[in-house]
User: Which sequence fits this backbone?
């Protein structure tokens, strides 16, 4: 079994597998070259192009996993919610009333995004031993975009809608949850070996609102995949206040941002694999500070399963050389030896 | 002593004083009418206009405190950092190098923003018994804007600068801290009866980075005001992971957002007055949901000093009638009776 899958299943592996959120990043010159020729939808809907863009960072960096190139908004058009990327997602007709919710379709498994299954087929043939991660947006986060109409700092229209139309919000979340289950099932059928559910905007909500409109629907999606045989990863950002709720989710791994050290998350989420948690801004600093921060993450990740990653998406201005050196550092970090050193000299370990 | 000052000094007052962050809000038609005639800098730099805009919400809602109308960026031009509001702050020349930092001036107390002292004089004459709150941006948050060049979702340029130029970042924070002390001293000399330090962007940092570049400088500002005789309030947003660090600050009150209930904050910040923590989006919902959420905040605030407020700034689309009903609810909520009911029927209290 690959290092990634062992770690996601809870194994305290001898070194931490690494992949970079979202790999097929805007920071790669080979990606930008393709992006000059094709718009986002063309890249995401043409299996050969999707496969190529997915492979680029794996090829360049020798990462321990690939993540499908796509966007969390990909399933929305099949539900009747057309959108463009300029470059952020902009919905043609945002959801603003119960009638708008009633109008939504829940597509069949093969209709959500059939081009994705084709890309996965191509990727599995190319990737060999490197595992492929599929993903989807969590219902809450998709609903936030669907109501707001696009990206936002505050998502105030969504937060108003939740209060004005709680039943319609639940109906919207029902439709999104069912679509997301089908979409992830289609990815698993096509061959992804792990799935990550992105709940990027969960952190804007207070605990009871998150429990009612976020946790419940994320749990429904994750639960529906319990028998699918692939590890389930969940990520929320700026959501340390939700840690106790997140700990109730049926999943194998939680991806966490950089705000709290992994040792704290280990205590908050006992028994789960942890993924993260380097600040993506660390890649914008000089190598000495990046090395210090990455080593701190590696040390804080000891004592349980750890998949090395960024706490959130990589910044556009990141130098590929920095990423290459980071990958080398992580893949060269001997967790067995570091654990022994820490238990022999606990004070030195804590200081690192 | 006014209800606000009693609560800020730790008194478990019979009812919670209320003010609305940032009162002189874009949601008031009388403010918008003035804004059509004058740009932001004119309003902020003309004492009569500043006083009028500060008084508008107090007059309309009968609030328990006024907060000076201004912006956290107000002291920057006197340091040599010119900026415009379009409508968010945009710096003419952001700080991007150690040389840019060396070039900054630390203005004398009377030079930071002399128009503010004049406005405070006018306001104290008009406000009678209603206390006036002064404020400033915390050094970290001002530095984030100064380096980024304006508002941002991620402040990635600042987060990169912190790593590339840690010494220059500290020099920038030194200059900002000293300017902020002088600025707040000038406000206190002119008559404000409490001060609030806004560290709006502290929450984007991990704990060690916050301790080095945020906490240390906020503490320096608050400490320098220890003998000034006015209560000190600190606010960070989306910063629950920083609670333990914030608890170390020399201050009387902490203003908290809506992410965690006040009862949790009470345990995290023992002995401090709490301010907050209604989600500003609650004001966009129907009255029944607003009433439920506001009552929950009031109940969670029992058992110690509580100043009712929003967890962050009021949204532009807020209906003034909603605010008026909220003020009436809060001012009519009998904390003594509610505490008795809670201790007689603890289960009922917890359920509310």
Assistant:
């Amino acid at each position: 079994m690959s290092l990634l899958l062992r770690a996601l299943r809870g194994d305290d592996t001898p070194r931490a597998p690494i992949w970079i959120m979202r790999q097929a990043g805007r920071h790669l010159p080979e990606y930008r070259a393709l992006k000059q020729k094709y718009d986002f939808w063309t890249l995401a809907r043409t299996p050969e192009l999707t496969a190529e863009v997915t492979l680029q960072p794996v090829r360049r960096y020798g990462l321990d996993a690939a993540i499908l190139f796509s966007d969390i908004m990909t399933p929305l058009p099949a539900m009747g919610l057309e959108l463009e990327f300029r470059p952020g997602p902009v919905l043609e007709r945002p959801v603003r009333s119960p009638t708008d919710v009633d109008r939504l379709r829940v597509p069949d498994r093969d209709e959500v995004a059939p081009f994705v299954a084709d890309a996965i087929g191509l990727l599995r043939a190319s990737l060999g031993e490197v595992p492929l991660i599929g993903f989807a947006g969590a219902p809450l986060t998709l609903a936030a975009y669907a109501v707001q109409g696009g990206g936002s700092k505050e998502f105030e229209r969504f937060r108003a809608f939740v209060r004005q139309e709680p039943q319609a919000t639940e109906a919207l979340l029902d439709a999104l949850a069912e679509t997301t289950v089908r979409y992830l099932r289609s990815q698993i059928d096509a061959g992804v070996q792990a799935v990550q559910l992105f709940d990027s905007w969960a952190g804007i909500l207070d605990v009871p609102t998150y429990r009612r409109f976020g946790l419940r629907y994320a749990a429904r999606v994750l639960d529906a995949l319990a028998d699918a045989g692939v590890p389930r990863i969940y990520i929320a950002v700026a959501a340390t206040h939700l840690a106790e709720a997140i700990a109730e989710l049926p999943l194998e791994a939680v991806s966490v941002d950089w705000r709290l050290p992994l040792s704290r998350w280990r205590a908050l989420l006992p028994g789960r694999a942890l993924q993260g948690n380097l600040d993506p801004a660390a890649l914008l600093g000089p190598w000495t500070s990046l090395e210090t921060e990455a080593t701190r993450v590696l040390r804080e990740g000891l004592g349980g399963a750890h998949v090395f990653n960024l706490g959130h998406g990589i910044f556009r201005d990141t130098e590929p050389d920095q990423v290459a050196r980071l990958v080398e550092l992580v893949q060269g970090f001997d967790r067995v030896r570091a654990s022994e050193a820490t238990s022999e000299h606990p004070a030195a370990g804590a200081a690192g």
